[in-house]
Structure to design on (695 residues):
């Protein structure tokens, strides 16, 4: 939607021969390309002692000034509540359940603390609102101290929290228990996930207040289940960390309530409708039905971009992360009912998806509210809810005989019993269409798929029976023993992977496929350099961009970045988190340790060599993502946070990755709200994490 306005433990020596062989193979496989020398070596250098101008935050916007006495009193109360001893349930603070009351209390404190840090008071009554939230935190503390359980969980509207696996932050969510709902804890309950619209000023504090006082549009129509309101990390369009927030909030509710996993509905409106489009299309096997209202479904047409105004081709390719038409076949796996107001400009989203459905020989169910602008028509909403209740009654089929998977990246690689495990090439249309015929033959057609796994498709069947016949793109594979999951690879033809050649030492795979932004969808640690770069302009840029990232994560993503000094990073850190390294080999000890094992970037005296570029290291910095050479199960990122910036926050449709797997930045141009400097070049690594030529 659019806004208005080291201490490094030694690695086992046994790994070194394998690692050396792997690096040698990578280096040998890179196609030599002509060197492009630095064309800005004689450019005027910015003064290293001149500060880089700050970048204005767009969302959430700065608020009004509040009375210093009010601020002081709120700060006093926040400090007092933060320092309380949170031990409940007969003195035990070890059981997982015992931590939940503390989380449900601290999320209120965090909301007010962030409002104070970022001046998120937008009217004078917000001071009263902040005190009200702190009053609730205090009351919850007293209730939890006097009895076991979660007494506030019995209310009709409940605000709760979970601990994020990405950054360890507390993230709020709201629940609605329908009035008069006969809740039976022994009976699995349906869950209706409702994604909210854009609200630039709806920060944690305001979101919590709304969840305590307001109902969703679908509330009057839900009599058979619980309604969940994920926060979505504020105003992210339910992308990146915002989409993980939706999935994690569902998991949190499933831990607390007896939720039927086969009767979960996904709905939302405006920005929430956009979230439903992309989350439903990217995770099609998690919902029994979905209904997006308004919103947007892709980037270029929604933002009225014409080809002459398109960004660089790397960014165009990255529209494929979230543009839903490229995932349309996934929506054939579940009931989809789209809604638009007849006079709403955002009817464009459903029109785009109607075209995408039609191109694949299908028809989208699209209900239109007569005479409506950007809101539901009450009669049409009744129709939608009738469809949703019918889907809830039927439930999700966990083992459908026919499955469609469409993707452009291994980040989104699964639908029911079909999983893509390797692509021929990322960011191209990739498909698996599979069905089990009545005679037991499994017929599969693919596009741009190198390797895939087919799990048992029959409910209650642990494995494919011996002799099961698979016809894959015309090739026939027959199981010679019961197979729980058939893993097949295509060389000249399809055959079981255990008969294929061994895989290369590095290959893109699910959760390890890039781009840079992918590292921030799971746990990461920012590694701050303790040394100094010999190049003053590089040092100046690194300090600015690192601090900018930390501040932006807190303001926009509503969490605290875990920052460690390079000398304090351990092997355990490498195994448990993606490492985000800032600086160069001179300033960052971790980067210096792995430099010889990062074949994609080299520092040679005053030269920086990256791909086919050899440039002045005094005026350039590399940005990249790569499997961590010291533990390839995790990423290492160099000099970057998420690559969309403040200027892209004006519309959620632009909050997409911008720079691919790597970029070379000329820092003679200072960072601004759309770029970290002048982008000399940017691109992707191939399926084996080697440079490839840009189109």
């Amino acid at each position: 939607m659019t806004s208005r306005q080291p201490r490094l433990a030694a690695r086992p020596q046994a790994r070194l021969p394998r690692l050396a062989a792997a690096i040698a193979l990578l280096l040998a496989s890179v196609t030599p390309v002509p060197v492009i020398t630095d064309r800005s070596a004689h450019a005027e250098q910015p003064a290293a002692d001149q500060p880089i101008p700050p970048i204005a935050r767009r969302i959430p916007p700065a608020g009004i000034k509040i009375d210093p006495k009010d601020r002081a009193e709120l700060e006093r109360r926040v400090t007092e509540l933060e320092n309380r001893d949170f031990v409940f349930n007969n003195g035990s603070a070890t059981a997982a359940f015992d931590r939940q009351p503390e989380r449900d209390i601290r999320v209120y404190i965090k909301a007010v603390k962030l409002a104070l840090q970022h001046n998120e008071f937008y009217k004078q009554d917000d001071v009263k609102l902040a005190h009200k939230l702190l009053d609730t935190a205090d009351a919850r503390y007293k209730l939890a101290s006097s009895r076991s359980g979660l007494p506030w969980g019995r209310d009709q509207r409940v605000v709760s929290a979970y601990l994020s696996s990405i950054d360890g932050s507390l993230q709020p969510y709201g629940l609605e228990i329908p009035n008069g709902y006969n809740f039976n804890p022994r009976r699995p309950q349906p869950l209706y996930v409702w994604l909210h619209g854009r609200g630039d000023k709806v920060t944690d504090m305001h979101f919590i207040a709304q969840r305590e006082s307001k109902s969703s549009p679908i509330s009057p129509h839900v009599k058979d289940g619980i309604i969940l309101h994920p926060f979505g990390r504020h105003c992210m369009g339910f992308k990146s960390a915002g989409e993980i927030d939706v999935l994690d909030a569902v998991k949190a509710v499933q831990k607390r309530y007896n939720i039927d996993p086969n009767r979960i509905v996904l709905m939302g409106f405006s920005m929430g409708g956009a979230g439903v489009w992309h989350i439903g299309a990217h995770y099609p096997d998690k919902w029994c039905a979905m209904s997006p209202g308004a919103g947007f479904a892709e980037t270029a047409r929604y933002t009225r971009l014409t080809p002459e105004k398109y960004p660089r081709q790397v960014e165009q390719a990255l529209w494929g992360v979230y543009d839903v038409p490229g995932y349309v076949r996934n929506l054939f796996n579940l009931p989809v009912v789209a809604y638009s107001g007849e006079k709403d400009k955002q009817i464009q989203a459903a029109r785009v998806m109607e075209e995408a459905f039609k191109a694949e020989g299908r028809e989208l169910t699209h209900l239109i509210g007569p005479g409506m602008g950007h809101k539901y028509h009450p009669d049409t909403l009744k129709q939608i809810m009738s469809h949703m209740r019918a889907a809830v009654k039927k439930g999700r089929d966990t083992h459908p005989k026919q499955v469609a998977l469409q993707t452009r990246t291994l980040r989104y690689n699964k639908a029911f019993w079909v999983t893509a495990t390797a692509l021929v090439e990322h960011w191209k249309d990739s498909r698996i269409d599979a069905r089990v015929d009545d005679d037991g033959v499994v017929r599969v057609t693919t596009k741009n798929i190198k390797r895939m796994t087919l799990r048992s498709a029959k409910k209650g069947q642990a494995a494919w029976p011996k002799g099961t016949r698979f016809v894959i793109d015309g090739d026939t594979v027959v199981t010679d023993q019961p197979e729980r999951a058939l893993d097949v690879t295509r060389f000249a033809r399809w055959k079981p992977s255990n008969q294929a050649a061994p895989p290369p030492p590095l290959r893109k795979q699910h959760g390890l496929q890039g781009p840079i932004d992918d590292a921030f969808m799971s746990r990461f640690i920012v590694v701050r350099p303790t040394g100094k770069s010999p190049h003053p302009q590089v040092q100046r840029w690194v300090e600015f961009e690192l601090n900018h990232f930390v501040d932006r994560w807190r303001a926009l993503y509503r969490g605290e970045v875990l920052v460690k000094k390079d000398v304090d990073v351990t092997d355990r850190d490498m195994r448990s988190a993606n490492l985000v390294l800032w600086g160069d080999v001179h300033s960052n000890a971790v980067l210096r340790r792995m430099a010889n094992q990062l074949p994609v970037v080299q520092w040679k005296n005053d030269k920086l060599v990256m791909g086919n570029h050899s440039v002045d290291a005094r005026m350039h910095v590399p940005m990249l993502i790569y499997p961590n050479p010291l533990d390839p199960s995790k990423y290492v990122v160099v000099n970057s946070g998420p690559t969309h910036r403040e200027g892209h926050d004006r519309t959620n449709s632009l909050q997409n990755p911008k720079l691919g797997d790597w970029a070379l930045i000329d820092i003679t141009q200072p960072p601004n709200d759309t770029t970290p400097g002048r982008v000399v070049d940017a691109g992707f690594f191939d399926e084996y994490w080697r440079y490839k030529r840009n189109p």
Q: What stands out?
A: Residues 152-394 form a domain with the Rossmann fold fold (CATH 3.40.50.1820).
